[in-house]
Design goal:
Elements: H1 2-11, H2 42-53, H3 73-83, H4 111-119, H5 139-149, H6 153-158, H7 172-180, H8 200-213, E1 243-244, E2 249-260, E3 265-275, E4 281-282, E5 287-292, E6 297-302, E7 309-310, E8 315-324, E9 332-341, E10 348-356, E11 361-362, E12 375-376, E13 391-403, E14 406-417, E15 423-424, E16 428-434, E17 437-440, E18 442-443, E19 450-451, E20 456-464, E21 473-482, E22 491-501, E23 536-548, E24 553-564, E25 570-571, E26 576-580, E27 586-588, E28 590-591, E29 598-599, E30 604-614, E31 621-629, E32 636-645, E33 655-657, E34 660-676, E35 679-694, E36 706-712, E37 718-724, E38 735-741, E39 754-763, E40 766-775
Parallel strand pairs: 2-11, 12-22
Antiparallel strand pairs: 1-2, 2-3, 3-8, 4-7, 5-6, 5-9, 6-8, 9-10, 13-14, 14-20, 15-19, 16-17, 16-21, 18-20, 21-22, 23-24, 24-30, 25-29, 26-27, 26-31, 28-30, 31-32, 33-34, 34-35, 35-38, 36-37, 36-39, 39-40
Helix pairs in contact: 1-5, 2-8, 3-4, 5-7
Length: 776
């Protein structure tokens, strides 16, 4: 079974991508060169162009791309090798598969690429030492292969999978993750169609997304000796040199800092001392000195908080610092451990050890990582320099938020414990680096985070920059401190050595954009999410965007249903929601005021979010991000992301106002005039006959939506409005009812009055009105 599964997965390599690849062409082709691509929308054309111009795809004939042609396994092998940057031995002419031959006129060209896939551990063939190069590919096979290419197989296998009868059991996890990451989409019917043939248009768009999200070096490859090599790009750990000071005591340099001050320089070092004996030893009585390139030597003072002894087989961290009053640049070159014997005259000095430090000096805010090996790409694994730890880290997501008028970058870092014991994440931060500037961030989670052996968790960093700053990298900084003798508070500072670049798109739409959402289906949240209880099903029931003529903008209203599937009450989570349009503009949702604190077992509630959009926003489909509020801070992190189409507003016969379905069967508006002591008063009464259906699973909150009826005269002027609830006194009911309007803005009877119907929701920022229909 394992063999056939692997074969099926590699079948996803089948793709009739191209008949030829443009090599050495006089000018690169683009979508305009193919007649069957003319009708694509601009966004899709851009993806096709990116793949065509680079030679990954070409047409099936001159002027025809073959948009809906099927793919085969040989054709996709070549594209996959190019997408994932595999090492291809183009001169290879003998295959390890018995059905792949360089002499094959149809598929022989793919032999080196097929072998590259095998070497990269992406396929072991179709069974019985065959590859089946001419075989077709299904959608679910394509999904599985892409997950393997992105090094997501373990994550896919641990995924709960899709509840979709059109997807084979073995592929459910692969399909769920591929859809969640935005590589493939469901059909119009809402199902995936796992066994339907994968076509060239699917391959282009999925390959584009896979190439965009691919982290270089993230696959396990097989060496010529048959051994599996490193699985993910990693910033190399620095080899720590040990300096023996006594028979049982060794020193390692954790960090060296050189920072500008008002009078010159502040120079410091952090040293780790270890005790190799079986008994407690005192800290050796030595001086730590620092030497500049011109031979000048300065003695560093020990921190008042330094330990005085080291436990058996233990280690301690010691801090040293001094101020150098010299307003010219200096270059630190060596660190010296010196034993000073004061009992003889003249005193005797013995250098116990010296270390070259010119390559590890951190120059504070002026520091720039020059060694490109130590500046990895986004997503590369790294360890914290100077820490003895089995924890590995990688940046996985970034968003740009605003604190007042200034931007703040929220970077999510995933930490994984590859050791055998539980570990606590050490005290480190990220710094945003721009040209000539550094911006020290802070960790959002303030409490210690412990990761069990084999476990992983996410931590978040907030880096606030100037308004016009363009970051180019993030540096990994360790927090250090030094306590002067006689002082109450320590000097806090940071040192670093490694960093990583921003994601290719500058992080404005990082992470996987999810699949096209099917209304009413439970949302899948990212792993390691502790914000949404796993027994709580969260689904989007409605998303409407309507014109707000009074304010000259548009109003968006999203309705989430939260269902408690457990046997205990679950607190209502206060998650955030935002919409992003086609042009990348993002709109934050204002959460409805909710009085319900807990959701009872077997029941659900509705939580609405209102959005204010400009009248120029023309998107019919939005990216909906559901966000976790981080550690009671103002910062948020996306935990689910989907492409969502707005719902068309129905006429009065079919109004969706979840959990209600309304049918305004008939209505009559009557005008009443009353003579009072101060003159005439005017009242309108609406006789409304309405059918109501309701989802009984949902319990209405006291702040649930209301229906607002606004009277409008023939010139479009508002005469007045009244809102009616679905709960409590004067609630709307199924059947005939009379609704009164008073406190009108006009003091005379109007003819040709129409009624605008809205759904209205109260939020902390004001009332959100969704226009539904107009009764005339």
């Amino acid at each position: 079974m394992k063999k056939s599964l692997s074969v099926i997965i590699s079948a996803s390599m089948a793709a009739t991508l191209f008949s030829t690849v443009a090599v050495g062409a006089a000018s690169p082709k683009s979508s305009v060169d193919f007649s069957d691509l003319n009708q694509l929308d601009a966004g899709t054309k851009a993806k096709f162009d990116a793949m065509i111009v680079t030679g990954i795809f070409d047409g099936v004939s001159d002027g025809v791309f073959g948009l809906h042609d099927k793919m085969n396994r040989a054709q996709f092998a070549k594209v996959a090798a190019l997408i994932f940057g595999l090492k291809v031995e183009t001169s290879r002419s003998v295959s390890s598969f018995r059905d792949v031959s360089a002499a094959d006129p149809a598929n022989g060209y793919a032999l080196p690429y097929i072998e590259a896939l095998k070497a990269a551990n992406l396929t072991d063939g179709y069974g019985d030492n065959t590859y089946n190069p001419g075989g077709e590919v299904t959608k679910e096979q394509l999904a599985a292969f892409l997950m393997r290419g992105l090094n997501k197989e373990a994550e896919a296998r641990s995924n709960g999978g899709v509840n979709d009868s059109t997807v084979s059991g073995w592929a459910k996890g692969y399909v769920a993750l591929a859809v969640q990451m935005g590589l493939l989409e469901n059909q119009i019917s809402g199902t995936f169609g796992g066994n339907s043939p994968a076509t060239r248009d699917m391959l282009v768009t999925s390959s584009y997304e896979a190439k965009r999200q691919y982290v270089p070096g993230s696959r396990a490859e097989i060496s010529s000796a048959g051994n599996t090599t490193a699985a993910k790009a990693e910033i190399p750990d620095e080899v720590s040199t040990t300096y023996p000071l006594t028979a049982n005591t060794q020193a390692q340099i954790k960090s060296v800092v050189q920072e500008k001050t008002a009078n010159g320089w502040r120079v410091g070092a952090v040293i780790k001392l270890s005790n190799a004996s079986s008994s407690t030893v005192r800290i050796p009585d030595y001086e730590l000195r620092i030497q500049t390139a011109d031979g000048t030597v300065y003695t560093l003072q020990p921190s008042a908080s330094n330990a005085s002894s080291i436990l058996p087989q233990g280690n301690v961290t010691l801090s040293y610092m001094t101020d150098i009053e010299m307003k010219k640049d200096i270059t630190l070159s060596k660190l010296l451990w010196v034993d000073v014997d004061q009992d003889v005259y003249p005193k005797r000095e013995t250098v116990l050890a010296n270390a070259a430090i010119d390559s590890i000096v951190w120059r504070g805010n002026d520091a720039v990582i020059q060694d490109q090996v130590l500046l990895g790409d986004w997503g590369a694994l790294f360890s914290i320099p100077g820490e003895t730890s089995a924890l590995k880290y990688s940046a996985v997501n970034m968003s740009k938020q605003f604190t007042g008028q200034t931007p703040t970058y929220i970077v999510e870092v995933q930490a994984k414990n590859e050791g055998s014991y539980a570990e606590t994440i050490p005290n480190f931060v990220l710094s945003g680096k721009a040209e000539g500037q550094s911006f020290i961030g802070k960790r959002v989670e303030e409490t210690p985070i412990v990761i069990e052996a084999g476990g992983q968790k996410s931590i978040h960093f907030a880096i606030t920059t100037d308004t016009d700053t363009k970051l180019n990298a993030f540096y990994v900084l360790s927090a250090e401190s030094f306590l002067k003798q006689g002082q109450n508070g320590p000097i806090q500072y940071y040192t670093g050595r490694i960093g990583f670049r921003l994601p290719a798109n500058d992080g404005f739409a990082t992470g996987a954009v999810g699949s096209s959402y099917i209304f009413g289906t439970p949302m899948a949240f990212k792993q390691m999410n502790d914000f949404i209880n796993p027994s709580l099903n969260v689904s989007l029931e409605e998303l409407h965007v309507t014109k707000n003529e009074e304010n000259g903008n548009k109003t968006g209203l999203a309705k989430f249903k939260l269902i408690n599937k457990s046997d205990k009450p679950i607190p209502v989570p206060t998650f955030g929601a935002e919409l992003a349009g086609n042009e990348g503009k993002t709109y934050a949702g204002s959460r409805q005021t909710v009085s319900t604190q807990d959701i009872a077992p077997g029941t659900g509630i509705i939580v609405s979010y209102g959005f204010t959009l400009p009248s120029t926003e023309q998107s019919e489909k939005y990216q909906l991000n559901v966000q976790e509020v981080l550690s009671n801070s103002a910062y948020k992190s996306t935990i689910a992301s989907y492409k969502v189409s707005i719902q068309n507003d129905n006429d009065h016969n079919s109004i969706s106002l979840y959990p209600f379905k309304l049918n305004l069967k008939s209505w009559t508006l009557s005008q009443l005039t009353t003579m009072g002591t101060t003159g005439f008063s005017y009242t309108y009464k609406l006789n409304l006959d309405m059918d109501m259906e309701r989802d009984a699973e949902v319990v209405l909150d006291t702040n649930f939506s209301k229906m607002k009826f606004e009277l409008v005269d023939s010139l479009g002027r508002s005469l007045g409005s009244s809102s009616f609830p679905f709960t409590g006194t004067n609630r709307l009911v199924s059947g005939s009812q009379n609704l009164s309007f008073s406190n009108l803005t006009q003091d005379q009877i109007q003819n040709k009055v129409s009624i605008k119907v809205y759904e209205t929701v109260n939020t902390p920022t004001g009332e959100v009105n969704r226009f539904i229909t107009e009764l005339k």
